[in-house]
Amino acid sequence: MRIRLEGVTKRFGTVTAVDRLTLELEPGRLVALLGPSGCGKSTTLYMLAGVLRPTEGDIFFDGVRVNDVPPQRRNVGMVFQSYALYPHMTVFENIAFPLRMQRLPEPEIRRRVHEMAELVQVGSLLDRRPEQLSGGQQQRVALARALVKRPALLLLDEPLSNLDAQLRQAMRAEIRRIQRELGVTAVLVTHDQTEAMSIADWVVLMNGGRCVAQGTPYDLYQTPPNRFTASFIGHPPMNWVQGRVSGSRLQVDGLPVYLPLPATAREGEVAIGIRPQHVQLVAPGRGHLDGRVTMIELLGHEKLVTVEAGRVPGGVAPSGPAGPTAGTGLRLQALVPADAAVVEGEAVGVR
Ligand code: ATP
Hints:
Blueprint: E1 3-12, E2 15-25, E3 30-34, H1 41-49, E4 56-61, E5 64-65, E6 76-79, H2 91-101, H3 106-119, H4 135-147, E7 153-157, H5 165-182, E8 185-190, H6 193-199, E9 202-207, E10 210-215, H7 217-222, H8 227-232, E11 239-246, E12 249-252, E13 255-258, E14 268-274, E15 281-282, E16 289-299, E17 302-309, E18 330-337, E19 347-350
Parallel strand pairs: 3-8, 3-9, 6-7, 7-8
Antiparallel strand pairs: 1-2, 1-4, 4-5, 9-10, 11-12, 11-14, 12-13, 15-19, 16-17, 16-19, 17-18
Keywords: ATP-binding, Cell membrane, Membrane, Nucleotide-binding, Translocase, Transport
Organism: Thermaerobacter subterraneus DSM 13965
InterPro entries: AAA+_ATPase, ABC_transporter-like_ATP-bd, ABC_transporter-like_CS, ABC_transpr_MalK/UgpC-like, Mo/tungstate-bd_C_term_dom, NA-bd_OB-fold, P-loop_NTPase
């Protein structure tokens, strides 16, 4: 189903939760609405579900304006963070419920419930009631119930937040596979950029009720259109340094650094974003600047190394065991393999 939002605004009293949002979501895509807490993601999702009505603007499903269509007539499946299961029904009956509403024949209901239950790994829990399930299991049942009627649009509001890390990753892949298999258009709300990047075909990044960027995960990561996007997407976060472009030369805080600048680079003051993955540590004197390692954080098979680089002309490493004093140095983080031979306090070159 193709979804179009045209100038959609939602106000709660004086709070503008969603601000003139215009979006076109292609059929069959899994779209992530990504952004910091309070940016309007959930409000947008609730408007797609029909639970909330836009204050201004229009929502179209396959070209049909749906502003006035109630939730039950929108052909959407919903999994919300707080989505309650029917407490008096078993897991089986909870999943079967939407199919019973459609009056499908009993054998087909049984087949589809079992199929879906296996898919979300609750096949052994079908006779239990929701109160006998963990939060994560309840969420999986809610997912099965949303998917079982094969809706044209699947809406997911942080559906994996109650699951442990391992199950979460498995369920991401499951959601992806199911979504592809059914060809259902899906919109997933998340504040977790790793989740958005790993699962979505298309990411809509929101801030302050607006869309600040949209694109494929790859494009948003590789060519972020603005600083907010560059900062928000990618882990660990980008290093930001101030500098000045003059000709093909980029000066960073008085240190002469030569970088292959694009021909379109404008002369003047610039903010330079450098991902930790792109900062290399080399022997002192062999990099663009020299510094001292002030902190090392192990992140599994990689480690994040913080380097305070001096402002000394000629790129001389700051001397003394403490390195440069706070505020005078350039602080950069480098992501290096966990087994890289680097220790705190060591002098290094940075490339
Ligand atoms: P989170 O990730 O924390 O859930 P979100 O991006 O989903 O955040 P929304 O829940 O859409 O954000 O909220 C957007 C803004 O609208 C917030 O400032 C929120 O406080 C406000 N808001 C949401 N619902 C209401 C409401 N019913 N009444 C008043 N303000 C609301």
